[in-house]
């Protein structure tokens, strides 16, 4: 596949997926109300028209065929009015549209995966279902009604005059495209589709532009025609053409078969190829005027042009490369400002250098913020998909549950948003399947609202996003969890020594489940170990809290981005470690009399009325250092998730923005994450600094004791 076709395919996939996501959200919202609005009917019609045309251009027959039949269905509904359907038909229409959306999405996924699309028999089977519903609501099997939106007014290009044989047309717009485009029928269809979205009524010749690639040669030689029933509609179309790209020129042509129509003046209008959205000079309303030169036309403002230029789509891989380059720039800046040669400069030279270095740091910081913001997307896309999950499970499980979404505009790194979609979906399914009570009677007996409630929320903190999934269901019983774990031999100490939180965390052990039966969705606990690992893979933490008879809350803390962070550099012997600033609460010195010991002889220190264990990094990692007594070094009070403790180090070097680098793949077998190591970074002098995982270090050094 050449670059042009690959870019076209990416654009097609992006547009089609966006339309299907919007369709899903529209259907879920309308089903809650129980009816379609006229605007929504028009929106679905336009979406299907767009998918039909673009899929036909890409020769994806299954997508274009099904979208065409849905378009036919909504043409009828739009024509007759949604109020013409009775409640039962509307309910059936909702179910049909959800299945149609799923069918189209599955076909798009086949395109993305490079697998063959559905065969004709499968397409016909689903198309017949759509047609059967159309016949049911129309009360007739007239094929002409079914094909209404696809029919154009009769007309063919006349061999004698070159104009379409369309007696109803008052005038034509004869349009020529830029030279050397390739696939001219595709560009012509894009222009036609844009005019149709503006609800301009016209007919196009050749009629089969959108389905017949052979029309490209005809468009190159003779252009293509738009036929209008009135001069006013043609002028409206002309205004819309001014915002379209790849148009070399166009002209009004009188229809000789409609003598009563006023004779419009031919006004060619060129668009410079170098500026595809450069507006065309307005055509005169009356009186002949000489064509304006191209240079003067380029200066004419167009009201809609800035809107079309305000958004562009960019491949994520390009953003990844940009962020990598910004990261290297941050490292290089650090190398320059910490170069040992600076000590040899005179006072004045050093001051001048530092002044320039501060300006460089400011520019680098601004560039980094912009590069990171380009990758930030709202989490609403993931949250809105949960609406569909809840809707389908409500019907299959016969449960009445309302989904409440909060903080859907919270932004996160695009890669992280993609990574957390499956974990959130799994948790929502668990809450619906086994969190919410099976029957309304159970909820009423428990003194609860008959309708269950599921809350999906996201909030920002300084460096992370906190996502919670809360249900008001039956909750989890720690005693049952401990009993199940004991049966499977998963307990590492007597059950009586487990805290409530430790008992709840048992569900994150591989293969752990309290379910007696397997459902088509998931059981509370089944696969939760995978969910936990997926969250940890993006640098996040996972925790849950549950009260028997009250409900369960699952909390995920996800970093905003994985690329660059603010870190504190510390030394232990000859080694340098980096700790995320977001995890540090305080740094302080201690005296021997401030140290206390627990029953097992572990060192602890008191801070703000609570006692926290101390981890000596030189002991844990077996590092040689001359700083072994607590009063000689320094303690860092750190916190991650709900774990707080103190880390003993030799000294602090200072705060620095660091670029997180993953370890080489051959180190994966050592499972460094379980030893409190999350990655590394390159310092200004070119040396390597290990980045500590505060939560992982706690698990490795304290939980295993």
- Strand fraction equals 15-25%
Helix content: 40-55%
Given the structure, what is the number of helices? 21
Query: Structural class from helices and strands?
Result: alpha+beta
N→C terminal distance: 57 Å
- Spans where pLDDT lies below 50 across 5 or more residues: 140-160, 259-309
Order of strands across the main sheet: 14-18-19-17-16-15
Sheet with most strands: 6 strands, mixed
Notes on the structure:
The protein has 705 residues and is of the alpha+beta class. The chain has 21 helices and 22 strands. The strands form five sheets. A six-stranded mixed sheet has the order 14-18-19-17-16-15. A five-stranded mixed sheet has the order 6-8-9-11-10, with helices on one face. A five-stranded mixed sheet has the order 20-12-13-22-21. β18 (634-640) and β19 (643-649) form a beta hairpin. It is flat and about 105 Å long. Mean pLDDT is 80; it is low at 140-160 and 259-309.
Summarize the structure.
The chain is built from 21 helices and 22 strands. With 705 residues, it is of the alpha+beta class.
Offer a few descriptive terms.
705 residues; alpha+beta; 5-stranded mixed β-sheet; 22 strands; 43% helix
